[in-house]
Amino acid sequence: MKKLAFFLVALSLGLGAFGQAKLTLLQNKVEIDKQMKAYAAAWGKANNVDMTIITSGGDNGDMGGMLKADYAAGELPDIFVIDGPDAYAQWGNVILDQSNEKWVAQTSVPYKSPEGKVVGFPVAVEGWGMAYNADILAKAGVDPLKLTNLAAYKAAFAKIDAMKDKLGLKSVVSMAASTGMGWVTAHHNVNSYLSNGLKFGDKSIANLALAGKVDAKRLADYADWVELLFNYADKAVLTNGTYDDQVGAFMTGKAAFLHQGNWVDPNYASAKATFKAAYAPHGSSSAVTDGVFVNPPAWYVINKDSKNLAAAKKYLNDMVFTEAGNKYMVVEAGMIPAFKNIKLQPTGPLSRSIQDWAAKGKIYSWNQYLLPEAFRNDTLAPLYNQWALGQIDKKKFIELFTAAVATLKK
Predict the structure, then answer these.
(1) How far apart are CA 172 and CA 268, in angstroms?
(2) Can you list the domains of the chain with their CATH numbers?
(3) Minimal CB count within 10 Å: which of 19, 147, 177, 372?
(4) 124, 262 in Cβ contact below 8 A?
(5) How far is residue 306 CA from its own chain's centroid?
(6) What is the tens place of the pLDDT at every residue in 75-100?
């Protein structure tokens, strides 16, 4: 009998913490796909969990569409991400309340339901402005600290453009507005209109949009900014470029500026780049704006109907409370941790720049996700693409943007 008991104990230990559990995680950060899959494989092996990571991002960013298809097929992932109120409104009925999880006490930026329940685990703290190659700007005699409004950017872009051959540049800005990159324009870039220059937490322009109205002066400035970026971008990248095309041009020194966030630090590392890089504010206003956009990019949520809830909860907690989890988030994935107990800090230059801006309190909100997902993807994104292709001009963009916002009025 003792031998049988010993055998059963040994068998249970051999099967790991969760027997033969399976977990599927759907995430949207293509730049950490390899790192996340490597960590998940190691974690799965240690816990005897068959981990599957599915990534929707980069040139294939229809996370909402994938979730809807999975839900219709009865195959909703055990863990997936939401990016704000619109996504929560769609999936709140299947999301688990995580209020009692250990990690909650270690972060100030969880996602909370309208009722105040903690439902989302912050993936990281991220931010963006205009990433710049400090070495190129120094050679061109451009002071990045003065890039705080539209006029300053116009002068800087013109100066650098005149020196492109000397500086070894193909374009001043690496910017993509192709059909597959609508998340760059209609998610991130439009946030300049919604948030730039406003006190952190100020949702007034987003709320105005949700009421079907635009701030005409603000929109005119913003359209000038989009026009400037488009005019000084590599046309091939702008109109038909992939994520790798856009980021690669900056990392290889072929563009002085990049319209992406600190999530591209892994690309900086993989390219073995050595130039100094940091962020300047967006120049979407004629007035001076001295800050960048900072927030968690998304939150991991757990499917409350998952057959492997214990494993899903442990996966998230282990990222916060184990050495391997901390190393994955900060060292391997290069993310800024959203948890106060994690002492590791990212080494990537763009992440350090975001931390510097945040430490100074010079940050603006992410308000783009207050707008409906379908509106961003299906209505706004095509407008930027049409403009990039020359099918409409700035005047028409403003007209169509205004008309599109009017459709949001309930």
Answers:
(1) 18
(2) 2-124+297-337 (3.40.190.10), 127-295+361-406 (3.40.190.10)
(3) 19
(4) no
(5) 26
(6) 899 999 999 998 999 999 999 999 99
